[in-house]
Amino acid sequence: MNYKIFKFPKPSAFLVSEFVIIVLGVLAALAVDGWNTARSNDEIKMHLVTSLLMDLRQDQEDYSEFVTDSIRRAEAANIIGRLANGEDVDLADENMTAAEALYFIARSSRLETVEVTFREMTASGSGTSIEDAVIRLTISYYYGLARDRADINDLILPAILRYRAYLEEVGMSYVDKEDLDIDIILGQPKIMAVVRELGTWAAVAASLAEDLEEANRELILELESFST
Questions:
Q1: Is residue 5 part of a domain?
Q2: How far apart are CA 135 and CA 56, in angstroms?
Q3: Distance, CA of 45 to CA of 197 (rounded, Å)
Q4: Strand runs (DSSP E) across 46-176, as ranges?
Q5: pLDDT at 44
Q6: For residues 103 and 179, is the Cβ–Cβ distance under 8 A?
Q7: Domain range for residue 47?
Q8: Taking the CA atoms of the chain, what radius of gyration do you get in angstroms?
Q9: How high is the pLDDT of residue 166?
Q10: pTM of the model
Q11: Within a domain: residue 95?
């Protein structure tokens, strides 16, 4: 039996050129798509970094104010405590009168962190546009630390409210410095107890916020170098 060998026709130059054009077109489309994706990721990354830096610089100001207030509250509580112990306190050296100390103990102060951009990153998953895994980890660590440190608010604020309430019980208001009678207050065990409590927590708060300030400075430096 004779078999005929089937031969595929040789492609014409036209077909070859058409094939090459199609392949090149697909490759070009893929390249453009990849370029657009990379550009989009870069834009997202720069948006996040810029927004994070804005949040962090606001945190920097807030932390500094909180540390100053906490140190001042601790100093004020220390002055009142020493007066209660009968010590001879030179208020001129302390740069604070007894009334000012009583007023400052009652001032509101919160340790707060701006989390707008971090929440955006977490909710949308856009944080992956920041390719550096170490920086992503540092960002997560910072905001985790901030939330942990903010627990101090749950100790300070209720004590401040108790202090204000105790002042009202003896007919005084913290907002009127002239109305704060140190001699009466020194004879009030409940008020003195909460003053000492606030002094302790204020010192702790200052230390916690200073740690957070350091983490804040380090993250700002990392993000600034990353964005250049």
A1: no
A2: 14
A3: 45
A4: none
A5: 80
A6: no
A7: 13-227
A8: 33
A9: 96
A10: 0.79
A11: yes
Contact between residue 201 and residue 73 where contact means Cβ atoms under 8 Å apart: no
Q: How many Å apart are CA 101 and CA 113, to the nearest integer? A: 27
Instruction: Give the three-class secondary structure for 188.
Output: coil
Residues in CB range of 185: below 8 A, 6 or more apart: 80, 102, 167, 170, 172, 191, 192
Number of domains present in the structure of the chain? 1
Give per-10-residue mean pLDDT for the chain (228 aa): 54 59 59 50 82 96 96 95 88 81 93 94 85 90 95 95 95 88 93 96 96 95 82
The two structure tokens encoding residue 74: 């601790």
Instruction: Write the CA distances from 89 to 51, 63, 200, 211, integer angstroms.
Output: 48, 30, 20, 32
- Tell me whether residue 74 is in a domain: yes
Place of tokens 């990353």: 226
pLDDT at 129: 83
Answer whether 126's CB lies under 8 Å from 120's CB. yes
Task: Report which of 189, 161, 167 is spatially closest to residue 84, judged by C-alpha positions.
Answer: 189
H or E stretch at 97:
none
Residue written as token pair 């916020």: 209
The tokens describing 126, both together, are: 């856009």
Residue 6 domain flag: no
One-letter amino acid identity for 150?
A
